Amino acid sequence: MQEYPIGTPGKPWGDEEKAQWLAQQSVKRTYQQEVLDKLDTIPDGFKLVQYGALPYDATRYPLMAVVPENFNASLPNMLVTGGVHGYETSGVQGAIAFIREHLSEYAERCNVVVCPCISPWGYETINRWDPLALDPNRSFYKDSPAPESAQLLAFVESLELAFTMHIDLHETTDTDNSEFRPALAARDGTEHDEWEIPDGFYLVSNSKNTQLGFQQAIIDRVREITHIAPADENGKIIGADIVSEGVIGYDKKSLYLCGGLTDAEYVSTTEVYPDSPNATPEICNEAQVAAVRGGLDYVLAK
């Protein structure tokens, strides 16, 4: 793996190195135009609520969710999250597309909560981390130092709902190897091997409760949009054992992943590959929408 230009190999970063890293980040797209402006029209029966704001710039980075105007206590509760890693574009845009195009179809059958962009600073700067050099998707725990994670946790807890399903929308990109894993190794003073970036869509299930039927239903729906990632030469995907076609598993709670923030029975993290020669931004967004719909339809059919 390449040597990262910040820090000393084998030595974890201190405040100086983190400040040096932050100084190199810049805004490359706008949260206002690409996210907030697209949430100007919400389907009937739902409303847009602000559940917090990032302390780096509270005016620039309000944290938004789409929720039912009235929760029906007799219906199951479903959670969709996107943009925990801000650089994973289709997670955000797919969540927005689902809100605009399909959310109303589920209004009478379940209570759907959608948080389309958990990390708006990361979205604007195309980053995996937040300005504190923290990965929000490893920070979902009590008194989390990552405000993105802490505020989402507080919001979900405030709803006082038992969620049946949670789908978290992500991407795996070539920059995972070229930038983000080298940065992680440098920050922590460790070594991280490069992994083979899978060419295609895959899922990360909750290894403590895989629910293979649920995962397969999502894979089958997404297959109509884009190709499913094959195993690598070692029979794995990103170094993890395959439990079903296009499906691996992580212990989401022990890793403090967003997918572990509820006790939902049905949990999955999508992974779209936008750098595939067979992919386009539209295909990636459609794959995320298909994953959400496939998951919802499966659970509602149960």
UniProtKB/TrEMBL annotation:
One MF term in the entry's GO annotations: metallocarboxypeptidase activity
UniProtKB keywords: Hydrolase, Metal-binding, Zinc
Entry cofactors: Zn(2+)
A Pfam family: AstE_AspA_cat
PROSITE patterns to which the protein is assigned, alphabetical: PEPTIDASE_M14 (PS52035)
Matching SUPFAM superfamilies: Zn-dependent exopeptidases
GO biological-process terms attached to the record: proteolysis
CDD domains on file: M14_REP34-like (cd06231)
Domain Peptidase M14: 27-302
Family: Belongs to the peptidase M14 family.
Designated name of the protein: Peptidase
